[in-house]
């Protein structure tokens, strides 16, 4: 069963290696395991629902608790401490468009706010019910998870928007296709959620971001339906898909999405290359992507992230042998790991791999072969489970991300890490590390992880997080990065959006939301403030 207050399936543990407590101690100090509340304690605090009964709406406290928060660090603090100020008044699980239309009509009749809910994997406060007088209905789309049409001639698939990653891929794979969209939250996040948060999958270098994969679909809004056909291209004025992409539930409920699919690849392999310095690897990565070679993944870690990954890998003997081999070949303490993914025809992969490894070699890169790459790909959806184990030892982990142009990547990366280090108050320390997760010919995304100790009081943990998040977000905005490359805006990034869009741009978004949702019913407070 899915954990109600953490990540993933509760039957799947994440075993930290034996050296982890000592490493954590060295990085940030000894953690004190928190006392988390039990589900019964939280359930007892769920207030009565303010919604009148409706056959599609559950007012069960268990349903309402499971939809009260997402996966951001403040969400974890709330769920683990039981300090949850607002619960949705009800949760609905529509089975089709008719149910969604019925729920929109019901919400209008009872003046409820509506929160569309995909997999609840938001890490920026997208699905948290707002406080206020008006009741809140969360609409979970998970029952709308079917493949409705597969046009193998045009390579288009139509799905119910609530389909989660594994269900979507299984339905396509059975027919010889893939979407190729693999965010790390793949296990639970949904197609609708990906579209409206402008998500990016780990192999976006090969398959593209969701913006490119989303061909059309249907949005049901309080003002009516918007149906977008899957034209391969069009010059018929502004592309309304762009309005839906990133709309974060403000315009209505995406009930159906049409996506561009690819035949299953003939072959796929993942390699690790280690560089003697960040600068050398950065040059190689930029050149590879600017050569437009057909890779599906490039993921490049700083020295600290490389050391952290190797230290927590748990295979001390193998890592020791690797480090000896690398140091003999001139790759020492500042080593940086690059993961390269090759996906496609076997002959093309052979040629691309040769070109990529030659180019890496010119920058001092040493190939470690397929072992680390294959291990990473095999465990890529397990890494988030680490957060559960660290929390239980008394540590919080959060991530943040941005994107900027190549000329600015090293500077902005430094500024973000420095801002985080500078925000650790009270004699506390923070362990910060970064990788470039997605690369483009013009620039890259910067993905930073930071780890710190939980405070004895959950509110103090929250204050620590606010200091880190505020400092890093300010550094991103001031340093010329976007406030989000892939996680979206939600509530946590909303205060920074004006700096990026400008007052006119933000006002235009708010005007569009009013056109679709004149009563301000849809997910208020997300994306932009409603004041
Ligand atoms: C461990 C972890 C790893 C992650 N890795 C990645 C990653 O690699 N790449 C990435 O891009 N993101 C990642 N994320 C962030 C998150 O998974 C994405 O933002 C994802 O797209 C959210 O999808 P969801 O279905 O869970 O949406 P939810 O969290 O349920 O909702 C997110 C927003 O979308 C709206 N929404 C959802 N479905 C619909 C719909 N059908 N119609 C209208 N609005 C809707 C909601 O109202 C809300 O505003 C990660 C999160 C976690 C916790």
Description:
With 531 residues, the protein is α+β, with helices and mostly antiparallel strands. The relative contact order is 0.13. Helix 17 (409-422) packs antiparallel against helix 18. The protein is built from 19 helices and 18 strands. The model has no long low-confidence stretch (mean pLDDT 97). It has helices spanning 20-28, 39-43, 61-66, 73-81, 97-110, 165-173, 191-197, 204-207, 210-213, 241-244, 278-290, 303-311, 316-328, 346-362, 371-378, 386-393, 409-422, 458-478, 494-516; strands spanning 57-58, 90-92, 113-117, 136-140, 147-151, 156-160, 177-178, 214-221, 224-228, 253-260, 262-263, 267-275, 297-301, 336-344, 366-367, 395-405, 431-440, 443-453. The strands form four sheets. A seven-stranded antiparallel beta sheet has the order 15-12-14-13-17-18-16, with helices on both faces. Bound molecules: flavin-adenine dinucleotide. Flavin-adenine dinucleotide (FAD) binds next to strand 3, helix 7 and strand 10.
Summary tags:
alpha+beta, five-stranded antiparallel beta sheet, binds flavin-adenine dinucleotide, 531 residues
